[in-house]
Design brief:
Distance between the termini: 88 Å
CATH architecture of the domain at 69-206: Up-down Bundle
Keywords: Cell membrane, Electron transport, Membrane, Oxidoreductase, Transmembrane, Transmembrane helix, Transport
GO cellular component, one term: plasma membrane
Number of helices: 7
Shape: elongated
Radius of gyration: 24 Å
Organism: Solimonas fluminis
CATH class of the domain at 69-206: Mainly Alpha
Family: Belongs to the cytochrome c oxidase subunit 3 family.
Transmembrane segments: 31-56, 68-88, 100-120, 140-164, 184-204
Number of strands: 0
CATH superfamily of the domain at 69-206: Cytochrome c oxidase, subunit III, four-helix bundle
Order of helices and strands: HHHHHHH
Strand content: under 5%
Oligomer: single chain
Structural class: mainly alpha
C-alpha cells in the first residue's frame, strides 16, 4: 500500500448522517395507523357479539343483568373525562403548564371512576353466576367490554407518565406531541364506548 493511500482519511460524516431524522408529522401518522388497527380489533369484537350475543344457553340475558342507570353514570364519567382532556389541550395551547396538569389529573380521576364502576359490574355479574363461561353471550360481552376497559386502564397509566414528564420537562415539543397522541386515543375510546352503550346495553335491554 502506498504512503499516499495509507495517509488518506475520510471525514466521519462521509458515509452516514449523524443528524436526527424525525419526519414532520411522522409520529401522528404512525399513531393514526395504530388507531386504525385498533378499530379492526373492536370491529371484530363487535361482529362476534353481533353473531353470538343472543345465545344465552338458558342463562341470564341483557334484561336480567344490565342496570342502565349504572351504565349511564359510567358513560357520563368517560364523556366528562373527554371534555376535561379537551380543556387540558386548550391550556396546552396557551402554554399554561399547571393548568394542563390540573385538567389531566381530573381526567385521570374520571377515568378511574369509569374503570372502577366497570369492575364493580363485572364482579356483580360473576357473583350472580353470570361469568364469561356461562354462555356465548356473556363470553362476547366480557371480551368486548373488558377489552375496552383494558384500553382505558392503559390510557390512565399513559396519562400519569405524561403528567410526570410535563412536570419535569415542561410543555416541550415532544411532550405536546405525546399529549396530542393521547388525546386522539382518549377520544377514540369515547367513540367506541358510545357504540358499546348503544349496541350492547341499550339494544340488549330493548330487544
Amino acid at each position: 500500500m502506498s504512503a499516499h493511500a495509507a495517509e488518506t482519511t475520510f471525514p466521519p460524516d462521509s458515509f452516514y448522517d449523524t443528524g436526527e431524522h424525525h419526519p414532520q408529522n411522522g409520529t401522528m401518522l404512525g399513531f393514526w395507523l395504530y388507531l386504525m388497527s385498533d378499530c379492526l380489533i373492536f370491529a371484530v369484537l363487535f361482529a362476534m357479539y353481533g353473531v353470538v350475543g343472543a345465545n344465552y344457553a338458558a342463562g341470564p340475558g341483557p334484561k336480567d343483568l344490565f342496570d342502565l342507570g349504572l351504565v349511564a353514570v359510567n358513560t357520563s364519567m368517560l364523556l366528562l373525562s373527554s371534555i376535561t382532556y379537551g380543556f387540558a389541550m386548550l391550556e396546552m395551547a396557551r402554554g399554561r403548564q399547571n393548568a394542563v396538569l390540573g385538567w389531566l389529573a381530573v381526567t385521570g380521576l374520571f377515568g378511574l371512576a369509569f374503570v372502577g364502576l366497570e369492575l364493580y359490574e363485572f364482579n356483580h355479574f360473576i357473583h350472580e353466576g353470570a361469568g364469561p363461561q356461562r354462555s356465548a353471550f356473556l363470553s362476547a360481552f366480557f371480551a368486548l367490554v373488558g377489552t375496552h376497559g383494558l384500553h382505558v386502564s392503559f390510557g390512565i397509566v399513559w396519562l400519569v407518565v405524561l403528567m410526570v414528564q410535563v412536570r419535569k420537562m415542561g410543555l416541550t415539543e415532544p411532550n405536546r406531541r405525546r399529549l396530542a397522541c393521547l388525546s386522539l386515543f382518549w377520544h377514540f375510546l369515547d367513540v367506541v364506548w358510545i357504540g358499546v352503550f348503544t349496541f350492547v346495553y341499550l339494544m340488549g335491554v330493548l330487544r
